[in-house]
Design a protein that fits this description.
The complex is a heterodimer of chains A (115) and B (118).
Chain A lengths: L4 E3 L2 E4 L5 E6 L6 E8 L3 E9 L2 E5 L6 E5 L5 E5 L8 E8 L10 E2 L3 E5 L1
Parallel strand pairs in A: 2-11
Antiparallel strand pairs in A: 1-3, 3-8, 4-5, 4-9, 5-6, 7-8, 9-10, 9-11
Chain B lengths: L2 E3 L4 E5 L4 E3 L2 E3 L5 E8 L6 E7 L6 E3 L2 E6 L4 E6 L8 E9 L10 E2 L3 E6 L1
Parallel strand pairs in B: 2-12
Antiparallel strand pairs in B: 1-4, 3-9, 5-6, 5-10, 7-8, 8-9, 10-11, 10-12
The chains are: A mainly beta (115), B mainly beta (118).
């Protein structure tokens, strides 16, 4: 168990809908990352938050957005869903690199199926 | 831009064989981190090891060992005496080092599916 929690574990929805994925980082970690894993794109970085602020953006669609709340949990919002958005979405967290630790610990993922 | 290449898509071995998973990376950064993650059939991503670019010492942890060679930009992973439980997809990843706080994104390879059979 990495200490990172994600809900829900599975999500099935229809095209055009909007969903919210939730993540709680490991205790003490201030950075949260979102990744998408799909068969055609592999594991792709989406976005990173650090202590409530957006720090880096990757291949995240405009239909997707995220935020990190004061209690450090994070939500990834996916809207106007398309079939191609079906994927496994991972959240990860890490401590400050200044402490010499940069590894990211991943949650169990949310499997999104868009029908 | 950073890039990680895992040329081996799938490897099948018989239990107790040794197996090496290859990883080649590209980066313009002089300081960076390399990682290996394991994704078993259950789907979670499990952290295995981190290596700093300024530390080329090889590492051994039980049946696992890692060979980091900066000269060839490679970070290979060897499993000795493989077991059925080692069956998984293994990902190599790279991140740059930043001076500001907050961590760094990981750039993953495409993964190597390892199948260990009896």
């Amino acid at each position: 168990d990495s200490g990172v929690t994600q809900t829900p574990k599975h999500l099935i929805t229809a095209t055009g809908q909007r969903v919210t994925l939730r993540c709680s980082p490991r205790s003490g970690d201030l950075s949260v990352y979102w990744y998408q894993q799909s068969l055609d794109q592999g594991l792709q970085f989406l976005i990173q938050y650090y202590n409530g602020e957006e720090r880096a953006k990757g291949n995240i669609l405009e239909r997707f957005s995220a935020q990190q709340f004061p209690d450090l949990h994070s939500e990834l919002n996916l809207s106007s869903l398309e079939l191609g958005d079906s994927a496994l979405y991972f959240c990860a967290s890490s401590a400050l690199p200044g402490q010499g630790r940069n590894e990211q610990f991943f949650g169990p993922g949310t499997r999104l199926t868009v029908l | 831009a950073q890039k990680v290449t895992q040329a081996q898509t799938e490897i099948s071995v018989v239990e107790k064989e040794d197996v090496t998973l290859d990883c080649v990376y590209e980066t313009r950064d002089t300081t960076y981190y390399l990682f290996w993650y394991k994704q078993p059939p259950s789907g979670e991503l499990v952290f295995l090891i981190r290596r700093n670019s300024f530390d080329e010492q090889n590492e051994i942890s039980g049946r696992y060992s890692w060979n980091f060679q900066k000269s060839t930009s490679s970070f290979n992973f060897t499993i000795t005496a493989s077991q059925v439980v080692d069956s998984a997809v293994y990902f190599c990843a790279l991140s740059e080092r930043k001076v500001t706080g907050g961590g760094n994104k990981l750039t993953f390879g495409t993964g190597t599916q390892l199948k260990v059979e009896l």
